[in-house]
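Technical appendix A lists one of the benchmark inputs used to test multi-chain prediction within the project. The record comprises two sequence entries:
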Amino acid sequence: MTTNRHTQEANPPADDDKLRGLLANLDEAARMLGEARDFAKPGKLPRVLDTARRVLLQPGGAAALEARAQALEEAGVFLGSDWATPQYLLPSLTTYALKSTDANTVVIEALSELRLLAVAKGGYAHPQVSAEQAHHYLTQVLAINLWLLFSAPSEAERETQGRLARIPRQLFHHLAERIGYEHIIDKLIEEIWRILQQRPIQVDSVKQMITQIAICQADPDIDLGASGQGADRLVSSLYGPTRACREDPGLEVYRERLASMDNAALQGEATGFARAMHDTGLVSPYHPVLLRHLLDHGDHLLAEALGLSSTGRDCLLCYRELARALIRSAVHPATPQAVYGLTLMLERGILYQPPVAPAMWRQLGLSLSEWSQQRLSLAFGDTVSPRARLLEGVLCMLGLPLGVGQGNNPTCQSARALSMWAYNDPDYLLQMVAWAARDDEIVMHFEGQPVSSRESIGGVAQSLPMDLDPVSLIVVPHLDRIYAEMGRRCIGREGDPHRWVNPEFHGWWSGRGFRINVDVATGQLEELETFLRHFYASYHPYYNGNQPLIHPQPAGIAVTDSAARFIGWHAITILRVSLDPSEVMRVYFYNPNNDSGQDWGDGVQVSTDGNGERFGEASLPFEQFASRLYIFHYDPLERGELARITQEELDRVTQYVHRSWGADRIPAADFQADAGPRPRDY
Amino acid sequence: MNKDPNKGYIALLGWSLNAIEAAENFDRRYIVVAPEWAEEYCQKHDIPHISWNFERLNDRSMEIAETLQEMGVDVAIPLFEETVEWAGAINSLLLDNPRLYGQSLLLRDKALMKRRAQLGGIRVGIFEEAHDKGDVIRFLKRVNQTLLKLDGDPNDPIHLKAFDKAGCLGHRVIRTPDEVDTIPDEEFPVLMESHLDGWEFAVEAWIHDGKIAFLNISEYVTLGYSVFVPASPELEQYRPQITAQIEKLIKAFDIDFGLIHPEYFVTSDGEMYFGEVAYRPPGFKVFELLERVYGFNAYQASMLVFDPRSTPEEVKAFFPREVEDAKCYAGCFGVYPRRRVVSRLEIPEEIEEDPYFESHELTSPLEETVTKRTAFGTHWGLIYFKGDDPHRLRELLKHQEELDFYV
């Protein structure tokens, strides 16, 4: 276990100082609360809670609060609230508290959890709960809120909680570490497979989780009991996928072993790595060691080590020098995912498009601006050069166009554009990367007028996003500003600005025809029936002359939560519409959100696996998808007749709309419904 | 805390939890004189209390003074502007000194106060009372004629203030005759003052036996928005002159004890102009700032200097040395929503990350539409900062004005 288990860097001293300062502040606030007479306590509590909130946002903050749990409780933090009687707390209520928009609720819940943790660990003898009770309670809380360990904040959380959404996550990482993953490990494994099935580009958090599992398994003090059986493939894919590295001997030892292997042994290693990679989408740091070693051997072994099909192998042989140059520059033990990106890029055959290979050569030699280098180093550290890091990102994006995620940022539009270009127009993507990374500027055109990312006054995101893959990290800030600027140039026009912005922003293939079923001025539903008939006529193979969708099309979704309540407007890409294995017509789409498997309520459960999805695709039955759609594009020249869908089917879709996000948007003569928020992207 | 029967018995006029808490933790007996709505709360929490409605002084005014006298109370302390003349009336009886009532009336009326200061040889700007809009226009013109402005030159502004309200309440700035129309008739009469270009600051001075026991200078970064203590070295260099001014003020108003809170301008040539003075704790939580900086409780300080039984030794021992004993600089900023429609409170990340940021007392908005501010208005809550560098603190406080806390 010597490879990348040490990636959790020590906190830089600046963070330590900050935490120390905050803790001094907290201790003082808690002292004042403790000394205050009962009547004065309510006046002292806000400062304690607010300071605790800031402590929770710091690395190591949760541990510091756990250590202070008893002092805080005795000072009176929980006085007069439900948390004052922990013996009656219900695990199932924690979810609501942690998702609350009220910072104090989130913080007091977090403090209560940390207090029970201190009790469970024996550090705090509590008059009302025993260590066993506390332990049992926390195990349940962890299992119920497992999503907090795995996922970046969802749209819903981002929209309602903002930065606050980080607190439950940091808290739960601390809880899981202290309580022990063995209690939650089976759920963890299930969840990891579900995420990997979507083949995200960013796998750091998955790798961290697998590492946690591996550490638990290796620790003789942890009794996993019967749990953790399904973890072997996951752990081995990272730490010992082949015979020669089974026991995780360390990169140096493995390199020596390779040197003394004959062809048959190398073949065995190659196949082992390829299988692990294709099984999971994860690449072990040993894999790059083998690949670099094989550069001195024949193409056959290289193709084996990438697990290429005949298509990919052809491509590799055709672009032999380029592929080798890419391996030399981008594939390092610190950038193992580059292997998977390269493999899938070869499999896609996009190198056969004339501009792509020369554009890759440009990428190989690209000199990055100071700014780009700094951003990459800041986000990913400097174990490899920023250029290699970016190259890994480029390979992954071209190999996994649907694996692009927006991180915890309101930049779904930019993530969608990147994904769409990687999918549909790879050399254009490479052009964008070159401009952004080398020149610190992207110029796009809006209705003939140039829009420069440098001159624009600001984007949708208020701060520079950091939690992104290398390509997004460099390009998204530019795209975001351009997108926002295009929107600003539409101010004053009647109707929704996406009508003009989407085609100009994403590419010529986005239909210039545009339909929306919400009246922008009032937020009310408008012409829902025509909208739906038109959508069927444009996209549904039974109504459009059995024409498969040609280009990916931007579309807008009204996202709802698991109770089917409206959350916000979201940008997605419609990729294809076809019958699934059980003969149900489904829409397959790309969601720039980091995890597409979402429950949109009222039985609308977005599927990512098992219904004919390709990696990274989300899907819904056509009707259900139509019920959450509010914007789509079409080619005005191909507009046919409105589809003659049966009234029955139409009613079903309309019912779905009315039961969810459309509930308070139904225009009616006899009653005045509340307008609800107007369309706006986030 | 155990109460010392040999020390004074003090009445607090007005409802302030911070003051009650301070009194609770101090060795003097106390009683809260507050409106009836506080009674239940006081009973529940065991706070000594008498109900009293502080309307305008009337025939029953003697009643409260006599009640307190019968209880053995030694002195009354005003906590708010509206209770200043009550304290004057009550203390004239308790301390058998009728002059105190007259003094409190002087301190309640901004026009009388300025005249008295002027008589005492203190420099003030040009000022006048206005009874209607015509008076305001005349004053504006005359001030600008005096300044030798020609037609078409931009006017120097004038300031309008209510006679008897605390701080910035009802404070307006008028530059053109058109703006006069925006003043509602019910705001008259008002006090008008010429504008003084200069550095405005405030002083909190605790006076015992007619002498300054502790003098704090509060530096305003922007009037109505931000203040910090102790003042920066650039302002503290005027301390000797400021002390001399305060001594003049003590003499002019014949102040023997208590806490005064005057405001001054210092112009570029080092001249001090008196603005106004209040005989009560300052708004904007300067008391809290002082506690953070020096560690002493300013309410207790007031109880100490008001108490006729305090000895000079006790007073001397209570206060730290000005500036020298300050542990840090502390400041606060009053937040006003900048947008017309707001949905939630969101402290900007750069503030939260700033090591000088200490805490805030902002709450989530109750209404989405922000009432338009006519005069200076009331802020929605304060944010506290503290740190070692007064210049960085000042810049930080200034910078807050450009940020949105309600979005």
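The interface with chain B takes residues 17-18, 21, 25, 29, 36-40, 43, 46-47, 50-51, 54, 57, 101-102, 162-163, 463 of chain A (CB under 8 Å). The longest helix of chain A spans residues 13-35. Comparable benchmark entries are summarised in Table A2.
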